[in-house]
Amino acid sequence: STQPRDGWISDPRMSPAAAPMQRMRLCQFNVLAPSARICEPLRRLPWRERQEAICDWLAASEADVICLQEFDFHPSFAGFRELYDAKLGDAFEIFTAQRTGSKHDGLATLVRRATFGVLSMSTVELEPRFCDRVAIFAQLRHHASGLGVVVANAHLTVAHASNSHDIPMCRPTQMAQVLRELGARSADGALPFLCADMNSDHLETEPPDGPYTSQDVSRPVHMAFEQGFASALHEARPESRPISHTCSYAQDGCADYVFFKKNRPASLVSCYLHPGEVPLDTAWSPTTGWGEGPHSMLSDHRPLVADFSLGPAREQPPGGA
């Protein structure tokens, strides 16, 4: 079930004398576009029924910013955007960006009106252009704290090991551009976050078929780490190798990411994959999806939810973190 925000605990690293923290919940989720190649057992479900269930869960999730990938724009699925507007439009401002070229899927960023004011919303076409990838950058003002927040939403090219460009060139190029754009938009001190389907997993050690190593595949994740970002899920659950989505190119599965910068006025409180009762290392089943529960077949991804406290930057304790 969704973890309610009134059950949050204080960050134990915070001084008892610290100012009260303001809260922010981010949700990262690839909703699997109906026009995409649908895996078993999801192909048996009517697209509207599945997307309605996703909208209902998002409405109940208490998220403040929601970043969705594979939002569908295909004319054969007329009513997709209208469904999200009807279910979520009262509480959220909804911004979308279709991929370029002949692609029919894209991104959606939803911002809760009661939590944030939208300063700017921009779409960037990512290089190389033949990949037809885009990213959304939301520049926001947190009502309660007054802090500026920038949330990027991205979906990197699949790590195809069968060609000579996706892994060594396209994916690192896209990530470099996303990080550069995010840095420019947060140069005034705004807090940067990146929600992304990275199509990889930095804890994977088995190489893909072909000439590349597992480190080659996860290079974009390490690029974020090298710029001072951390993965909320892996920080919260360092003992696990989480799997949040199935894929045909990465053995048992990959992880999705919410990146944030530590030792800034944003402190990670908790992070989980929904459904919370399903173990983090559960692999996708072509029979039951993520399990037997009511939300086990929302998508071939599991929603990733990260809770943060917003407030003054924490001082490093003696000897480091």
| Structural Rg | 19 Å
Uncertain segments are 4-20, 313-321
Gross geometry: globular
Q: How would you write the strand order of the largest sheet?
A: 3-4-2-1-12-11
Q: How would you explain this protein's 3D organization?
A:
The protein is an alpha+beta fold and 321 residues long. The protein contains 6 helices and 12 strands. The longest helix has 20 residues, at 166-185. The radius of gyration is 19 Å and the shape is globular. It starts with 21 loop residues before the first strand and ends in an 11-residue tail after the last strand. 42% of the residues are buried.
Short summary of the structure?
With 321 residues, the protein is of the alpha+beta class. The protein has 6 helices and 12 strands.
Question: Tags for this entry?
Answer:
12 strands; six-stranded mixed sheet; 321 residues; single chain; alpha+beta
List the helices and strands and how they pair.
Layout: E1 22-30, H1 47-60, E2 65-72, H2 80-88, E3 92-98, E4 105-112, E5 116-125, E6 134-142, E7 148-155, H3 166-185, E8 191-200, H4 214-217, H5 219-226, E9 229-231, H6 232-236, E10 255-261, E11 266-273, E12 304-310
Parallel strand pairs: 1-2, 7-8
Antiparallel strand pairs: 1-12, 2-4, 3-4, 5-6, 6-7, 8-10, 9-10, 11-12
Helix pairs in contact: 1-2, 3-5
